[in-house]
Design brief:
- There is one protein chain.
- By secondary structure, the chain is an alpha/beta fold.
- The chain has a single domain, classed as 3-Layer(aba) Sandwich (Glutaredoxin), CATH 3.40.30.10.
- Helices cover about 35% and strands about 20% of the residues.
- The chain is built from five helices and ten strands.
- It has helices spanning about 1-25, 75-90, 105-115, 130, 160-170; strands spanning about 45, 50-55, 60-70, 95-100, 120-125, 135-140, 140-145, 150-155, 180, 185.
- An eight-stranded mixed β-sheet has the order 2-1-5-4-3-7-8-9, covered by helices on one side. Strands 6-10 form a two-stranded antiparallel sheet.
- A hairpin with a 5-residue loop joins strand 7 and strand 8 (about 150-155).
- Helix 2 crosses helix 5 (about 160-170).
Length: about 190
């Protein structure tokens, strides 16, 4: 009788453990975001210059939203490309916004200075913005059209040319069917 109970228990528990193991080993770069073509979740962020910015303030513009941290190697690798892309589009009806995660203000500010980042950046103190956007790691970037819809998500490092292309598409309301993938750092 005890063997039979053990066998039944194992038959019930084994599939559950297998599903959990599969879920925890999935690479976040290959999980499609349900947010594409949906309205971007509104938020307010305190910028490192002391100002506040809400996503609704950016309505009517194409938005590039990038989650990053100073300790993240792929974030460091993409930093110069992001600034170069910003310099190419800053005079258009487009906005960049960087969101620092799991970082100190001092390290974030040193990162911004080291890479001469001139576009607005703030800190997601409690990770609420990252959670609302389903961020699993960094860098992750979202492109938002002037009506406030997410048109594209890129998981991992991104190059300047792709940023400009996807921002141009976002400005036109073009939704991408696929997400982009690059080098990636899971959130600690």
């Amino acid at each position: 009788m005890p063997w039979r109970r053990l066998a039944i228990t194992l038959l019930i528990i084994a599939p559950i453990l297998a599903l959990l193991a599969f879920g925890f080993t999935r690479d976040a770069r290959y999980i499609t975001s349900p947010l594409i073509a949906k309205s971007a979740t509104p938020f307010t962020i305190t910028l490192f210059d002391g100002g506040k910015l809400t996503l609704n303030d950016l309505r009517g513009k194409a938005v590039f939203l990038n989650f990053w941290a100073s300790w993240c190697p792929p974030c460091r690798a993409e930093a110069k490309d992001l600034e170069a892309a910003w310099q190419r589009v800053k005079d258009k009806n487009m906005v960049f916004l960087g969101v620092a995660l799991q970082d100190t203000d001092q390290n974030s500010l040193e990162f911004l200075k080291e890479f001469n980042v001139t576009y607005p950046n703030g800190k997601d103190d409690f990770g609420k913005i990252a959670v609302d956007y389903g961020t699993w790691g960094i860098p992750e970037s979202f492109f938002i059209d002037p009506q406030g819809r997410i048109t594209y998500k890129h998981v991992g490092g991104i190059r300047a040319a792709l940023v400009v292309t996807k921002l141009d598409e976002a400005a036109k309301g073009i939704v991408s069917a696929q997400e982009g993938k690059g080098d990636y750092q899971p959130i600690r």
